[in-house]
Every structure is written in C-alpha cells, then in structure tokens.
C-alpha cells in the first residue's frame, strides 16, 4: 500500500510517500519557507499560503520521483485538513482532492496533530494506549492516545505554545527566527543561574501549560540590562529561558504520567512529538521522567518531529486501513481538536 501525504498547515511545504511495508518512508520532501518569512521575524499567513501555491507542485513531483513511482501507483492521497493557517490548509486540501478525483483514489483528511501523534509509530512498534507530549510552535498538549482517532486530552496551554515561548524569547534576545534552535545554541555557553526566570505552573495541579508570564519576565530582565545585550547576557538569559520551559514541560508531564498510569496501569510508553521535541535538554529530562516511572521513552528522529509529509501520509495510511476515508466535500478546519469532548470545556484563551 502506498500513500501520498501533503502538509501545508504552517510554513513547511511538504509531501511524502509512505508504505505499510518496510521501508515505510519511500520519500519525505520538506521545503522550508524560512527565507520567505525571516524578514518579518515570524510566519505571515498570507505569505505562507502564496508560497505553498508556488512550491507544492514541485515538492509533490520530487516526492513521487524519489519514491520511484507515479500517481497511478498510489492507493490514497492524504492531506492535512487542519488545524493550522487556513490559507495553507486550503491549498493542500484542494490539491489532494484534485489528485484523488482525477485518479479515482480515496482522499483522507488528516488532523495535523494526529500526524504528530502517530509519527512515532513510523519508527517504533508502539502500541496503544500511550502518553503523548505534543510540543510545537502552535501546540502544547498532553494527550492519552487510545487508538486511531481516539484521544483524551489531559492538558493544553492557556496562552502560548512551548515553541512560541522559544520563538518569542529568541526575538526578545535578538537571536533571530526560528527561536528554538537559536536559544538552544546560545544556552550552551550560558549559565542559567545568572539570570533566574520563573518556572510557570511548576508544582500546580493538573497538566495545563502557560508561558505568557515567562515571556513578560524575560522582557523585564532584558529591559533591566539597558542598552544592547552582551553575548554573555544573551547566553545566560537563553539558558535560563530554556531551563524554565523544560522545567515547566517536565512538571506537567510528570502529572500526566500519574494520570496515564492511573487510567492504564499497564501503560508502557511516553512519546514526545512536535518541533520542540528536537530540544536536547527536554529529551534528557523526559528520558529521566520515563525511566523513573518505568516507562519506555520514544522520540521520533528530528526529521519526523518538525512538520513533514511522512507523518501525514502515515496517519492517512493508518486511517485508510481503519476504513476512515473522507468525502471530497470535506471543509478545511482552522481549528480541529483531537479530543472534541475536551474542546467543550475550553476556557478563555485555551488552545484546542
Ligand atoms: O512542529 P513544528 O515544526 O511546527 C509547528 O507545527 O508549529 O515546530 C516548530 C517549533 C518552533 O517554534 C521552533 O522554535 C521549535 O519548534 N523548535 C525548537 C527546537 N527546534 C525547533 N524548540 C526548542 N529547541 C529546539 N532545538
Ligand atoms: Zn506541527
């Protein structure tokens, strides 16, 4: 079985071909729009949508060529149907529907978050249920993954996502975009203790996240050091910011592990996914937590952590096998919670 997956929900134009027999990933082409957004210091939705239109056709062509196949060899077309920047999602979904219609193939609309959630199953014989920490530029959630399309949200952010905290922090420190890798690099030569920042939500009940107070604290710390920041100030503040974000993520995950094992005493695995999962300090902390709780820890390789087409193709393949295909009148969804019952208890500012 071969599935083409298309990802256009943010600033990566991506397409991939995956199979249900090894090697699972036949191709995985990611075109990053970084250069197009860098002048603005962040992602501009309109710029992203236009760039997807320009880049998607050649990216799909390369994905097919690298897999050594043509459209007629495919069994289905999957595309991110949301959540995300709606202009980009419309581009990907429309393209996928057009291919599906013209080739008479099934179309599968994939929830981008389910793509991240199932990406670990591409590289590990991971069984349900597992506990997922999903940390990206747009999302910060803890989910019990009970099966394909079956999620129970334990916590989410009430303001910014973890990746946003890295990105906004890097901007305040003059470290450029994207912030996560820049903060991690700068932090390597810094001393966190020389610039203490708060550790949001640490010690509090539950599994929700909040990062906007940390951003304010960082801004005040930058303002206190009036004038241009020295390289060593930058490094110390980057180290402190990374420390605080990792401490907060770890604290919330510890509560989630307790909830997971309470519900599923036979539960075996903690999985991290999303772009922030690239962070080495975070991986180290999560490994410690998992070992202490007697869980396996699975982190997909970096190429599958950040946005990519393989995770969408794979989620599409898993859904197809479960008989879950979509009609061609599927409407792209800017918001699409994995756990609809959790969405109804959203508070002000709580992200799906
Ligand atoms: O999953 P992703 O590629 O896109 C979204 O769906 O948002 O995640 C991108 C996010 C950005 O906020 C970026 O700063 C963050 O992942 N990121 C990192 C690292 N590499 C990427 N954050 C911390 N440390 C890193 N090494
Ligand atoms: Zn993502």
Topology record:
Elements (H helix, E strand, L loop, with lengths): L1 E6 L4 E8 L5 E8 L1 H4 L7 H23 L8 E7 L3 H18 L3 E5 H7 L11 E6 L4 E8 L2 E7 L5 H11 L6 H9 L24 H13 L6 H33 L5 E5 L6 H14 L2 E3 L3 H4 L3 H13 L18 H4 L9
Parallel strand pairs: 1-4, 4-5, 6-9, 9-10
Antiparallel strand pairs: 1-2, 2-3, 6-7, 7-8
Q: Any overview of this molecule?
A:
The protein is α/β, with parallel strands linked by helices and 352 residues long. It folds into 2 domains: 2-120 and 303-321, ATPase, nucleotide binding domain (Nucleotidyltransferase, domain 5); 128-299, ATPase, nucleotide binding domain (Nucleotidyltransferase, domain 5, 2-Layer Sandwich), CATH 3.30.420. 43% of the residues lie in helices and 18% in strands. The protein has helices at 34-37, 45-67, 86-103, 112-118, 162-172, 179-187, 212-224, 231-263, 280-293, 302-305, 309-321, 340-343; strands spanning 2-7, 12-19, 25-32, 76-82, 107-111, 130-135, 140-147, 150-156, 269-273, 296-298. The strands form 2 sheets. Strands 3-2-1-4-5 form a 5-stranded mixed sheet, with helices on both faces. It has a 5-stranded mixed sheet with strand order 8-7-6-9-10, sandwiched between helices. The longest helix is centred in the last third of the chain and has 33 residues, at 231-263. The model has no long low-confidence stretch (mean pLDDT 95). It binds 5'-O-[(R)-(carboxyoxy)(hydroxy)phosphoryl]adenosine and zinc ion (ZN). The site of 5'-O-[(R)-(carboxyoxy)(hydroxy)phosphoryl]adenosine (KG4) has 19 residues, from helix 5 and helix 6.
């Amino acid at each position: 079985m071969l599935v083409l997956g298309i990802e256009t929900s943010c600033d990566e134009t991506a397409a991939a071909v995956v199979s249900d027999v090894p090697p699972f990933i036949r191709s995985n082409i990611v075109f990053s729009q970084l250069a197009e957004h860098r002048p603005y210091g962040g992602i501009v939705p309109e710029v992203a949508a236009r760039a997807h239109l320009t880049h998607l056709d050649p990216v799909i062509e390369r994905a097919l060529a690298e897999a050594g196949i043509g459209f007629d060899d495919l069994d289905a077309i999957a595309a991110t149907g949301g959540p995300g920047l709606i202009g980009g999602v419309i581009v990907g979904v429309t393209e996928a529907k057009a291919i599906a219609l013209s080739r008479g193939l099934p179309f599968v609309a994939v929830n981008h978050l389910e793509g991240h959630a199932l990406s670990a199953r591409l590289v590990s014989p991971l069984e349900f249920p597992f506990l997922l920490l999903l940390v990206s530029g747009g999302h910060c959630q803890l989910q019990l993954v009970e099966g394909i399309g079956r999620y129970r949200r334990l916590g989410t952010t009430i303001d910014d996502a973890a990746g946003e905290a890295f990105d906004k922090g890097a901007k305040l420190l003059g470290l450029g975009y994207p912030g996560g890798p820049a903060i991690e690099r700068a932090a390597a030569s810094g001393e966190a203790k020389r610039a203490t920042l708060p550790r949001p939500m640490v010690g509090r009940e539950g599994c929700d996240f909040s990062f906007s107070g940390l951003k304010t604290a960082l801004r005040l710390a930058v303002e206190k050091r009036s004038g241009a920041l020295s390289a060593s100030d930058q490094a110390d503040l980057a180290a402190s910011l990374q420390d605080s974000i990792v401490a907060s993520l770890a604290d919330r995950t510890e509560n989630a592990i307790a909830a997971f094992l309470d519900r599923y005493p036979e539960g075996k695995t903690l999985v991290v996914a999303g772009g922030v999962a690239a962070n080495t300090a975070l991986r180290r902390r999560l490994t410690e937590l998992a070992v202490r709780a007697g869980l396996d820890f699975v982190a997909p390789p970096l190429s599958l952590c950040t946005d990519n087409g393989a995770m969408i193709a794979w989620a599409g393949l898993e859904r197809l096998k479960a008989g879950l295909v979509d009609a061609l009148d599927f409407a792209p969804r800017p918001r699409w919670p994995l756990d609809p019952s959790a969405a109804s208890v959203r508070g002000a500012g709580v992200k799906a």
